[in-house]
Amino acid sequence: MAAEQINEQKYHEVWTTPVIRIGIWTMLIACFLSFIPLIYLYMVHGILPPFAQAMTAWVLVASVFGAFYVVEPISYYPILGLAGTYISFLSGNISNLRLPCSAMAQEVVGVEEGTKQAEIIGTMGIIGSVVVNLAGVTLAAFIGTWLIGLFPQFVADAFRQYTAPAIFGAVFGQFAMRQPKLAPFALGIPITLLYFKMPIWLVILAAVFGTIIISRIFYKMKIIH
Amino acid sequence: MDEVLRIANSMGVWLTAAPIVIIALVQVLLYYRQIYHAADAVNLKPEQLRKAFHTGMVTAIGPVVAIFIIMVGLMSVIGAPMAWMRLAVIGAAPTELTAATLGADAMGVKFGGDGYNLEVMAVSWWTMAINGVGWLFLVGVFAHKLEDVREKAGGGDTKWLGILSVAAMIGVFGYLNSRNLTAVSGPFVASVTGAVSMVILLQVAKKMPQIKEYTLGIAMLIGMFAAMFY
Fold it and tell me: Could you say which of A5, A104, A181, B204 has the lowest number of CB atoms within 10 Å?
């Protein structure tokens, strides 16, 4: 499965080009479909968000999340790859679902990180997670209120509060095993910046690219390989 | 508020929320098919693809249970169809709640409180939609440019490209954990126990490869239960 055996031109033809075509179209269609419920509200109930307040709300929400629109795709791209990025940013739940599922698929199949095989296997893991995710939210929408009554309260609370931290820890452990020398920096950089109350978007960028830069230095110095 | 929730849960809203959920499904079906077309070119066998798909599904179960529970909470404030639509696409529950609240704020009304009428709800919906579009649009238009950046950063050195991917992953999860590690609390215990369990489970999986695809799910449960008893 050596990378050099892969026919670059064929790969481009059967993967990269269609991936981009599918990605652009589905993302732009999704942009339009986001507003359908508002159109419905106007057509059937005659209700339109007042223009001035709608613009104010847009400014407010962009000031909270705007930096993430740019920072997240750039930071997650080296892990998700192209198709993985399109899927993850349409389906959401990236840190708690897409990244762990992509990583586990690669781990189980046993592909080498950063290769074309890894990208496709990771994408397949993400697709599996989207299928379960869509089934889950559809189930929740229809019978969620009834089903939730069957859970003991403390179990429901534990899932709500602790799944994300536990998964974050587990995935960190999984990857820290591969490059243990990078782990202290990956934790040290964001904890220090959080201590100094830096904005979250800056903390993400510094954690990801700081760790990448240190890995580059260590690689050049032959400390990691 | 009753009137608002009655309309928010009406059949019409269900029907208008459905298309974006369907496009998310269509997108993965198209990529699924494309992977089978491309597998040959990268020397991947169908059983490896099946294994990857299966692992993705198994690993997703735990987090999806969490999403399920959070969504039921969200349904009571924005209605079932909107919660369904918003959680099937970009933006997790806290993001959507923040956006819906900011929409109400812009109208000078408390989210879900007195004065939260249909017009305010429309602004909440608008704010959730325009916020999601921020990611959808930028990724739709610019994602393929990122591939050029990665190729340049990789410089054709496949070994370095592998290290770069691992470094990015450790960096992202270093950040995600850092927010739970600044104080000893339930999330702190969940994070540390999850990490230790995963390292041990992966060692065990070297001798018992059949458990490998369940390791992350098991580590998650151990971390969760440890936090419950903290």
Answer: A5
Which DSSP category does B116 fall into?
A: -
H or E element: which one contains B149? helix B118-154
Cβ neighbours of A23 in B, within 8 Å? 139-140, 143-144
Which tokens is B221 given? 């449960």
Burial class (CB in 10 A: 0-12, 13-18, 19+), B151: exposed
Distance CA A202, CA B45 (A): 41
Tell if the CB–CB gap between B198 and A174 is shorter than 8 Å.
Answer: yes
B230 in contact with chain A, both atoms CB, cutoff 8 A: no
Q: Give the ipTM.
A: 0.89
pTM, two decimal places: 0.88
Closest CB to A166: pick one of B158, B191, B215.
B191
In the predicted model, residues of chain A with pLDDT beneath 70 are 1-6
Question: Computed from CA positions of residues B65, B67, B70, B72, in that sequence, does the dihedral angle turn out positive or negative?
Answer: negative
- Residues in chain B with CB shorter than 8 Å from the CB of A74 are 146
Predicted confidence (pLDDT) per residue in A84-109, tens digit:
999 999 999 998 899 999 999 999 99
Q: What's residue A57's pLDDT? A: 92
Label residue B46 exposed, middle or buried (CB < 10 Å: 0-12, 13-18, 19+): exposed
Question: Token pair 């978007």 is at which residue?
Answer: A201
Judge: B41–A210 Cβ closer than 8 Å, yes or no. no
Each residue of B148-164: pLDDT tens digit? 887 787 777 878 888 88
| Nearest CB neighbour to B171, from listed A129, A134, A210 | A210
Contact B15, A39 (CB under 8 A): no
Mutate to test the interface with B, among A120, A181, A225 (most CBs of B within 10 A): A120
- Residues, chain A, total? 225
